[in-house]
Structure formats: C-alpha cells, structure tokens
Amino acid sequence: MANSKRDLFLKRRLRVRNKLRKQANGRPRLSVHRSNKNISVQLIDDVAGRTLASASTLEKDLGFVGKNHAEAASKVGTAIAERAKKAGVEECYLDRGGFLYHGTIKALADAAREGGLKF
Question: What is the set of domains in the chain, with CATH numbers?
C-alpha cells in the first residue's frame, strides 16, 4: 500500500531529526516550519526542554513583502540570529524537518549564518 505525501513527510522529518540528535553534543536545535504562507523558527534547548528564541513572519515587523518568500525567510533568519545572540547562543544545529534544503529554507539558513549563528 502506498504511503501518502503526509506520511512520507513525517517519516523524512523523524529521520532528519534522529540523525541530527546523534550529532548534537548539547547544542540547541534551530527548528524550522514552513507553510504555504509563512515560515517560523524556534531555537530549542532539548536538554532543558524549552524554547530559547523564536521568530516568524506572523510578527508585524517580519511580515511578507509581496510574494517573495525567500526575502521574508531571510528577514526571519536575521531576526533569529539576533535573538539567539541575546539568549547567549552562538552555535546550534539546523533541523529542517521534512523540508528540503532549498529555496526559503536555504535563504533562512544563509541569513542566520550571516547574522553570526554557526551551524
């Protein structure tokens, strides 16, 4: 029986997360969620089980500019890098979930790296 797209997405998300968790070495996780309209990011400390910083296009100052999703993602990436520095985090690992490292996810990651976040 064929798996649905959602089932394949969930399997891919768990596979990515489990591989990254083995290499984490206590670093926080930069978790990315992308929908058709918005993108959100959380910096999560899995050891303590709490969110250290977050950013989303749902915030008024980070909202979309027209239809350019990559531009909005780069704004979110810059914002999360600033907020991570305020929280005292310089290194983390990128949990892209089940999403491909392409387009908006890549734009977000590049902007976070330019903002000073290392992963």
Answer: 5-114 (3.30.420.100)
